[in-house]
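Request: When convenient, would you put together a sequence paired with its structure tokens?
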Amino acid sequence: LEKLQDEKRVVVSELSHLFHVSEETIRRDLDKLENEGYAIKSYGGAVINENTSIDMPFNIRKKRNIMEKQKIAELVAGMIKDGDYVILDASTTAVFIAKAIKDKQRLTVITNSIEILIELSDISGWHIISTGGNLKEGYLALVGTKTEHTIRSYCVDKAFISCKALDKEKGVMESNELFAGVKQAMIDAAKTVVLAVDHSKFDHTAFAQITNFHNLSAIVTDEKPSNEWLELLRTYDLKCYYPE
């Protein structure tokens, strides 16, 4: 999966040599990845399934675009002040944000991310709140009606969410309606909503709409968007932050 993410295509003979197993073993593994929707088998190997409605497991996704996510996290950290009440979603980008804000004081953080709860578990002087809910297999995320109800019972200064895809007409989109529902609750609970998303998500669509651009306060990304995107965001009076 990691090689598929990095190289987009893998070859049976090369994988056999790399992992010191038979080509038949590799073919069986590729059969499994194809059945799970992650890969599409081709002659002599496989290519990654680019369908944006299919998510890689969390531990694979968090190794993607690390530099980009770190740039986003640095910008987001500058938006968070000591004493703020914030929501972080269960995206891999939010994990990098959590790492980047550890020097802040007296934060209250609400999250449905198991990974973020662990990441922040050793910090003193903060108030860390878990949303509760059902654990989504392979995602380290809590989802469902209990999660959404808990989030909506709070009112916070800022919510930082990510997404699977960003489309000029459809807005902010997610691959799974459970995740879309949780992020909608986060938007409802926050005075300021910041979308933290790397450049690879622009100009794509996914299965479930989270929200349109009207409900966002700002977008933080890792590189300057196209002029078309910047013009669109201006029409919604949306600030866009990116590294200069």
Q: What stands out?
A: Residues 23-35 form the longest helix (13 residues). DSSP finds ten helices and 15 strands in the chain. The mean pLDDT is 91.
